[in-house]
Amino acid sequence: MSSSVVTEQVSLAVSTVVFALRPHPRTGETTLWLPLVRRIREPYEGRWALPGGPLKAHQDLAASARETLADTTGLEPAHLEQLYSFGAVDRSPADRVVSIVYWALVRPDEDARTTETPNVEWFVADEVPQLAFDHNEIVRHALDRLRAKITYSPIALAFVPDEFTLAELRGVHEAVLGRCLDPANFRRQVLAGGTVEPTGTHLTGTSHRPPALYRAAPREQEKSR
Amino acid sequence: MSSSVVTEQVSLAVSTVVFALRPHPRTGETTLWLPLVRRIREPYEGRWALPGGPLKAHQDLAASARETLADTTGLEPAHLEQLYSFGAVDRSPADRVVSIVYWALVRPDEDARTTETPNVEWFVADEVPQLAFDHNEIVRHALDRLRAKITYSPIALAFVPDEFTLAELRGVHEAVLGRCLDPANFRRQVLAGGTVEPTGTHLTGTSHRPPALYRAAPREQEKSR
Description:
The structure is a homodimer.
Chain A: E1 11-23, E2 30-38, E3 48-49, E4 52-54, H1 61-73, E5 79-86, E6 97-106, H2 108-111, E7 120-124, H3 135-149, H4 166-177, H5 183-193, E8 196-202, E9 212-216
Parallel strand pairs in A: 1-6
Antiparallel strand pairs in A: 1-2, 1-4, 2-3, 2-7, 5-6, 8-9
Organism (chains A, B): Aeromicrobium halocynthiae
Pfam families (chains A, B): NUDIX, WHD_NrtR
Domain Nudix hydrolase (chains A, B): 11-147
């Protein structure tokens, strides 16, 4: 090495785990999906990886995450927050890269705007193949965080439209947790939590007893951290 | 610029917010303190800042945080976890620096081993002066996280010795939250949470009704994330 100034080089990348709810291809039950990008160069050429790229010097962290997402999937999810930074010395075989990882939650109306892009494919989150780098660990970390956070925060609201029924909201919880919840208990807990409120209207055109519609309560929102 | 290769330079630093519980200098009530380091070069020469430094290429993120802490304060806290990464484009006046921030919680026995170091001083966490860079925002973020997390996780256990009374544990909650808690309610909630268990012994040499001692329950620990 010709200069001691540049020997301590660390590169910085921003990647994103994007979760959307879609039917499972075999069971048909709603479950978590995420988009992956096929790598077209070494290391790990041909492997699937999280959407991401090097941080540009003029770009904020979240802006970098948003740009990659828009470029690869066409998605512009309202809910984007920082997950964790991964920096193990040996996580990339070629160089030292620290990845700051964001996670995004996609509403059905946002998901409908997903664009088809070559080398991008959606996978069931619990069934991803062997990924590049430590990206399996990152996906696992994001799933753990989501499944923990849904039990103590109103984060499930990021998966529903502005107005929703309690059955829809319960469906989100069930899809994320992968198990059924008792409707009466769920209803009681959600209403006691104070994070949703009735709109005063009902779902139209369904049954003779149309379910009430709810919206997020106008309180201090969960900070996007 | 002579080369397009090096124009997108981003530097990476690791800093740590260290919380310990000590008596407030005016009220005497137990409250949160943190150590700060006086900057001895520009930018912000003379201002106080969080302990930290550039990430070395051969060093993991947490190892970098631990090294700086040991060098500045002599502390080797058992509880160290990643807080957040701060990367606003303009957070450093001279260059582009992304700081990955850890936070550490210090037990009384660990705090007793704090070493005196020139240019390091401890401050009441809610009364820090104007700091260098965006470090006031980082301290605020860490305080918010700690005060939120103590309400839904057993993180208070990181501030007590291996064996403790419920009054000691309540004192930690009160010091962190800055308000009094009802002893009977607190006792009921903690015991219902299942995160502590009685040791079967009592505090000795105190009163005619010595309080029972507790320890962390041997369950899956809160992951250090």
